[in-house]
Write a structure and sequence with these properties.
Largest sheet: 3 strands, antiparallel
Order of helices and strands: EEEEEEHEH
Structural class: alpha+beta
Length: about 100
């Protein structure tokens, strides 16, 4: 038995059986907007996350055994390791502030 990766299905199926029982899934993406949860492919909306997960799919097709690629996080930049300030850099910063404020 293999797990179906279609959105909203999640059932196990036998890939040796050509059509099996079929798959009922969502073809669109999940939408979270102003407290509502819905799928972009159908009109059903809810404010409860458990209800959202239980919204029956709106499309029918074959099960999918291919796991989708993990989304790439584009918001977070590369991790920058910052060294703690040294006494010398602290003194230089203070001197620069004095020069700039007295000029």
């Amino acid at each position: 038995m293999v797990l179906c990766y279609n959105k909203g299905c999640g059932k196990e199926f036998d890939p040796a059986v050509p059509n099996g029982e079929g798959c009922i899934y969502h073809s669109g993406a999940p939408v979270f907007h102003e407290g509502y949860k819905s799928w972009s492919c159908c009109e059903k909306r809810t404010t409860d996350f458990t209800e959202f997960l239980n919204i029956k799919g709106c499309c029918k097709g074959a099960h999918n055994s291919v796991k989708p690629a993990e989304p790439v996080n584009t918001r977070a930049g590369p991790a920058v390791k910052r060294e703690p300030p040294t006494l010398l850099s602290s003194l230089i910063s203070r001197a620069a502030v004095k020069v700039l404020t007295t000029a």
